[in-house]
Amino acid sequence: MMGTPARVLVIEDDDDLRDTLLRYLRGVGMLARGLESAEGLDAELVRQDFDAVVCDVNLPGEDGFSVLARLRSRSAMRIVMLTARGMANDRLHGLGLGADYYLVKPVNLRELEMVLHNLLQRSQEVQGQGTREPDALAADEATAQAPWRYHGTTWLLLSPAGQRVQLSSAEARLVQCLIERPREVVDRATLLAAMGRPGLEAYERNLDVTVSRLRRKAEQASGEKLPIVAVRGEGYSFQGNVRIVL
After folding, report:
1. Left, alpha or beta for 135 (phi > 0: left; psi -120 to 50: alpha)?
2. How is domain 135-245 classified at the CATH fold level?
3. Would you tell me how many other CB atoms lie within 10 Å of the CB of residue 156?
Protein backbone atom coordinates (compact mmCIF):
# COMPACT_ATOMS: atom_id res chain seq x y z
CA MET A 1 0.00 0.00 0.00
CA MET A 2 2.79 2.44 0.97
CA GLY A 3 6.57 2.40 1.28
CA THR A 4 6.22 1.66 5.00
CA PRO A 5 3.20 0.05 6.66
CA ALA A 6 0.47 2.52 7.55
CA ARG A 7 -0.18 2.89 11.28
CA VAL A 8 -3.92 2.98 11.95
CA LEU A 9 -5.75 3.34 15.26
CA VAL A 10 -9.32 1.99 15.36
CA ILE A 11 -11.61 3.35 18.10
CA GLU A 12 -14.76 1.20 18.13
CA ASP A 13 -16.77 -0.03 21.12
CA ASP A 14 -18.34 -3.01 19.32
CA ASP A 15 -15.89 -5.83 20.05
CA ASP A 16 -16.82 -7.96 17.04
CA LEU A 17 -16.64 -5.06 14.60
CA ARG A 18 -13.38 -3.78 16.06
CA ASP A 19 -11.81 -7.24 15.76
CA THR A 20 -13.07 -7.55 12.18
CA LEU A 21 -11.60 -4.20 11.22
CA LEU A 22 -8.27 -4.94 12.86
CA ARG A 23 -7.97 -8.36 11.21
CA TYR A 24 -8.77 -6.93 7.81
CA LEU A 25 -6.43 -3.93 8.06
CA ARG A 26 -3.60 -6.13 9.32
CA GLY A 27 -4.35 -8.58 6.52
CA VAL A 28 -3.74 -5.87 3.90
CA GLY A 29 -0.43 -4.88 5.45
CA MET A 30 -1.31 -2.12 7.89
CA LEU A 31 -0.15 -1.85 11.50
CA ALA A 32 -3.51 -1.56 13.23
CA ARG A 33 -4.28 -1.17 16.93
CA GLY A 34 -7.68 -0.93 18.58
CA LEU A 35 -9.36 0.85 21.48
CA GLU A 36 -12.89 0.28 22.79
CA SER A 37 -13.30 3.91 23.90
CA ALA A 38 -11.49 7.23 23.96
CA GLU A 39 -10.37 6.64 27.54
CA GLY A 40 -6.98 5.27 26.56
CA LEU A 41 -6.48 7.52 23.53
CA ASP A 42 -3.98 9.97 24.99
CA ALA A 43 -1.79 7.22 26.39
CA GLU A 44 -1.88 5.39 23.04
CA LEU A 45 -0.85 8.54 21.16
CA VAL A 46 2.09 9.04 23.53
CA ARG A 47 3.13 5.41 23.01
CA GLN A 48 3.01 5.52 19.20
CA ASP A 49 2.49 7.89 16.26
CA PHE A 50 -0.38 7.03 13.92
CA ASP A 51 -0.97 7.96 10.30
CA ALA A 52 -4.75 7.62 10.54
CA VAL A 53 -7.56 7.11 13.03
CA VAL A 54 -10.82 5.29 12.31
CA CYS A 55 -13.27 6.47 14.96
CA ASP A 56 -16.85 5.50 15.80
CA VAL A 57 -19.21 8.34 16.68
CA ASN A 58 -21.30 6.59 19.35
CA LEU A 59 -18.57 5.80 21.86
CA PRO A 60 -19.13 5.33 25.59
CA GLY A 61 -17.95 8.37 27.53
CA GLU A 62 -16.33 10.88 25.19
CA ASP A 63 -18.10 10.62 21.83
CA GLY A 64 -16.49 10.46 18.42
CA PHE A 65 -17.23 14.07 17.50
CA SER A 66 -15.39 15.25 20.62
CA VAL A 67 -12.48 12.94 19.79
CA LEU A 68 -12.43 14.29 16.24
CA ALA A 69 -12.35 17.93 17.36
CA ARG A 70 -9.62 17.20 19.90
CA LEU A 71 -7.43 15.31 17.42
CA ARG A 72 -7.89 17.85 14.67
CA SER A 73 -6.88 20.73 16.95
CA ARG A 74 -3.42 19.24 17.44
CA SER A 75 -2.73 16.87 14.57
CA ALA A 76 -2.81 16.60 10.79
CA MET A 77 -3.36 12.84 10.88
CA ARG A 78 -6.09 11.46 8.65
CA ILE A 79 -9.40 10.84 10.42
CA VAL A 80 -12.20 8.59 9.15
CA MET A 81 -15.49 8.67 11.03
CA LEU A 82 -17.25 5.32 11.24
CA THR A 83 -20.85 5.32 12.39
CA ALA A 84 -24.36 4.01 12.07
CA ARG A 85 -25.61 7.58 12.02
CA GLY A 86 -26.17 8.44 8.37
CA MET A 87 -28.21 11.61 8.68
CA ALA A 88 -26.95 14.48 6.53
CA ASN A 89 -26.59 16.79 9.54
CA ASP A 90 -24.32 14.26 11.28
CA ARG A 91 -22.16 13.88 8.19
CA LEU A 92 -21.90 17.64 7.73
CA HIS A 93 -21.10 18.10 11.41
CA GLY A 94 -18.30 15.53 11.22
CA LEU A 95 -16.88 17.01 8.03
CA GLY A 96 -17.12 20.48 9.52
CA LEU A 97 -15.04 19.38 12.50
CA GLY A 98 -12.31 18.20 10.13
CA ALA A 99 -13.05 14.57 9.31
CA ASP A 100 -11.36 13.47 6.10
CA TYR A 101 -14.03 10.88 5.35
CA TYR A 102 -17.33 9.69 6.75
CA LEU A 103 -18.38 6.05 6.36
CA VAL A 104 -21.80 4.74 7.40
CA LYS A 105 -22.19 1.23 8.85
CA PRO A 106 -22.37 -1.49 7.72
CA VAL A 107 -18.94 -0.75 6.31
CA ASN A 108 -17.55 -2.26 3.14
CA LEU A 109 -14.07 -3.32 4.26
CA ARG A 110 -12.61 -2.93 0.79
CA GLU A 111 -13.99 0.62 0.66
CA LEU A 112 -12.38 1.43 4.02
CA GLU A 113 -9.06 0.10 2.71
CA MET A 114 -9.36 2.25 -0.42
CA VAL A 115 -10.27 5.34 1.62
CA LEU A 116 -7.23 4.92 3.87
CA HIS A 117 -4.97 4.21 0.92
CA ASN A 118 -6.10 7.37 -0.91
CA LEU A 119 -5.90 9.60 2.15
CA LEU A 120 -2.44 8.41 3.14
CA GLN A 121 -1.18 8.58 -0.42
CA ARG A 122 -2.34 12.20 -0.52
CA SER A 123 -0.45 12.87 2.71
CA GLN A 124 2.74 11.47 1.19
CA GLU A 125 2.33 13.68 -1.88
CA VAL A 126 1.93 16.77 0.29
CA GLN A 127 5.02 15.86 2.32
CA GLY A 128 6.94 15.46 -0.93
CA GLN A 129 6.26 19.12 -1.71
CA GLY A 130 8.28 20.25 1.30
CA THR A 131 11.02 21.86 -0.84
CA ARG A 132 8.60 24.18 -2.63
CA GLU A 133 8.34 27.88 -1.81
CA PRO A 134 6.08 28.63 1.19
CA ASP A 135 3.88 31.00 -0.84
CA ALA A 136 3.27 28.34 -3.48
CA LEU A 137 2.40 25.77 -0.82
CA ALA A 138 0.02 28.21 0.88
CA ALA A 139 -1.70 28.93 -2.43
CA ASP A 140 -2.10 25.22 -3.15
CA GLU A 141 -3.51 24.62 0.33
CA ALA A 142 -6.01 27.48 0.00
CA THR A 143 -7.22 26.10 -3.33
CA ALA A 144 -7.51 22.58 -1.92
CA GLN A 145 -9.60 23.82 1.03
CA ALA A 146 -11.95 26.03 -1.03
CA PRO A 147 -15.20 24.22 -1.84
CA TRP A 148 -16.99 23.55 -5.07
CA ARG A 149 -20.37 25.29 -4.87
CA TYR A 150 -23.60 24.07 -6.41
CA HIS A 151 -26.64 26.29 -7.09
CA GLY A 152 -29.53 23.85 -7.32
CA THR A 153 -32.09 26.31 -8.66
CA THR A 154 -29.95 27.37 -11.62
CA TRP A 155 -28.02 24.10 -12.20
CA LEU A 156 -24.78 26.05 -11.86
CA LEU A 157 -21.58 24.53 -10.48
CA LEU A 158 -18.77 26.86 -9.37
CA SER A 159 -15.19 25.65 -9.09
CA PRO A 160 -13.09 26.51 -6.00
CA ALA A 161 -11.63 29.39 -8.03
CA GLY A 162 -15.12 30.63 -8.96
CA GLN A 163 -15.26 29.42 -12.58
CA ARG A 164 -18.79 28.67 -13.80
CA VAL A 165 -19.90 25.26 -15.10
CA GLN A 166 -23.46 25.24 -16.43
CA LEU A 167 -25.06 21.81 -16.09
CA SER A 168 -27.70 20.03 -18.10
CA SER A 169 -30.76 18.56 -16.37
CA ALA A 170 -29.23 15.06 -16.17
CA GLU A 171 -25.88 16.41 -14.98
CA ALA A 172 -27.56 18.55 -12.32
CA ARG A 173 -29.52 15.61 -10.93
CA LEU A 174 -26.38 13.50 -10.86
CA VAL A 175 -24.34 16.18 -9.07
CA GLN A 176 -27.14 16.87 -6.57
CA CYS A 177 -27.34 13.18 -5.67
CA LEU A 178 -23.57 12.90 -5.17
CA ILE A 179 -23.01 16.06 -3.15
CA GLU A 180 -25.87 15.29 -0.78
CA ARG A 181 -23.66 12.39 0.36
CA PRO A 182 -20.15 13.88 0.08
CA ARG A 183 -17.24 11.42 0.24
CA GLU A 184 -19.61 8.45 0.27
CA VAL A 185 -19.98 5.92 -2.52
CA VAL A 186 -23.40 6.31 -4.14
CA ASP A 187 -24.46 3.14 -5.93
CA ARG A 188 -25.31 3.13 -9.61
CA ALA A 189 -29.00 2.30 -9.09
CA THR A 190 -29.45 5.33 -6.83
CA LEU A 191 -27.74 7.60 -9.34
CA LEU A 192 -29.82 6.29 -12.23
CA ALA A 193 -33.00 6.79 -10.20
CA ALA A 194 -31.95 10.38 -9.43
CA MET A 195 -31.49 10.96 -13.15
CA GLY A 196 -35.00 9.65 -13.81
CA ARG A 197 -33.84 6.35 -15.29
CA PRO A 198 -34.42 3.74 -12.57
CA GLY A 199 -33.95 0.05 -13.17
CA LEU A 200 -33.20 0.34 -16.86
CA GLU A 201 -30.18 -1.69 -17.86
CA ALA A 202 -29.97 0.18 -21.14
CA TYR A 203 -29.08 3.34 -19.22
CA GLU A 204 -26.14 1.78 -17.33
CA ARG A 205 -23.70 2.89 -20.00
CA ASN A 206 -25.42 6.27 -20.18
CA LEU A 207 -24.44 6.93 -16.56
CA ASP A 208 -20.74 6.47 -17.34
CA VAL A 209 -21.06 8.65 -20.42
CA THR A 210 -22.77 11.40 -18.40
CA VAL A 211 -20.03 11.33 -15.75
CA SER A 212 -17.29 11.38 -18.39
CA ARG A 213 -18.93 14.27 -20.23
CA LEU A 214 -19.41 16.19 -16.98
CA ARG A 215 -15.78 15.78 -15.96
CA ARG A 216 -14.62 16.99 -19.36
CA LYS A 217 -17.01 19.96 -19.32
CA ALA A 218 -15.91 21.00 -15.82
CA GLU A 219 -12.22 20.80 -16.66
CA GLN A 220 -12.65 22.75 -19.90
CA ALA A 221 -14.69 25.46 -18.18
CA SER A 222 -12.65 25.79 -14.97
CA GLY A 223 -9.24 24.27 -15.61
CA GLU A 224 -9.79 22.03 -12.57
CA LYS A 225 -10.59 18.35 -12.34
CA LEU A 226 -14.04 17.61 -10.96
CA PRO A 227 -13.48 15.26 -7.96
CA ILE A 228 -16.03 12.62 -8.96
CA VAL A 229 -14.34 9.23 -8.71
CA ALA A 230 -15.54 5.82 -9.83
CA VAL A 231 -15.59 2.88 -7.44
CA ARG A 232 -15.47 -0.25 -9.55
CA GLY A 233 -18.55 -2.42 -9.29
CA GLU A 234 -20.31 0.00 -6.92
CA GLY A 235 -20.87 3.54 -8.15
CA TYR A 236 -19.40 7.03 -7.86
CA SER A 237 -18.29 9.37 -5.08
CA PHE A 238 -17.71 13.13 -4.85
CA GLN A 239 -14.30 13.33 -3.17
CA GLY A 240 -13.92 17.08 -2.74
CA ASN A 241 -15.10 19.89 -0.52
CA VAL A 242 -18.53 21.03 -1.65
CA ARG A 243 -21.25 23.40 -0.52
CA ILE A 244 -24.85 23.63 -1.69
CA VAL A 245 -25.98 27.22 -2.25
CA LEU A 246 -29.72 27.87 -2.06
Report:
1. alpha
2. Arc Repressor Mutant, subunit A (1.10.10)
3. 15
Q: Tens digit of pLDDT for each residue in 209-246?
A: 899 999 999 999 888 889 898 887 788 888 888 888 75
Comparing 21 with 102, the larger pLDDT belongs to: 21
Q: For residue 194, what are the contacts with CB-CB under 8 A and spacing of at least 6?
A: 173, 174, 176, 177
- Predicted local distance difference test score (pLDDT) of residue 141: 41
3-class SS of residue 95: helix
CA 64, chain centre distance (Å):
17
Instruction: State yes or no: cis peptide before 106, omega within 30 of 0.
Output: yes
Q: Can you name the CATH fold of 7-127?
A: Rossmann fold (3.40.50)
Measured between alpha carbons, how far is residue 152 from residues 164, 178, 244 in Å?
Answer: 13, 13, 7
Q: Which residues pair with 137 in a beta bridge?
A: none
Q: Where are the domains of the chain?
A: 7-127, 135-245
* Cross-strand partners of 64: none
Q: Do the domains at 7-127 and 135-245 have one common CATH topology?
A: no
pLDDT tens-place string over residues 31-57: 999 999 999 898 898 888 899 999 999
- Over range 86-112, report the average pLDDT: 80
Using CA atoms, how far apart are residues 105 and 108, in angstroms rounded to an integer? 8
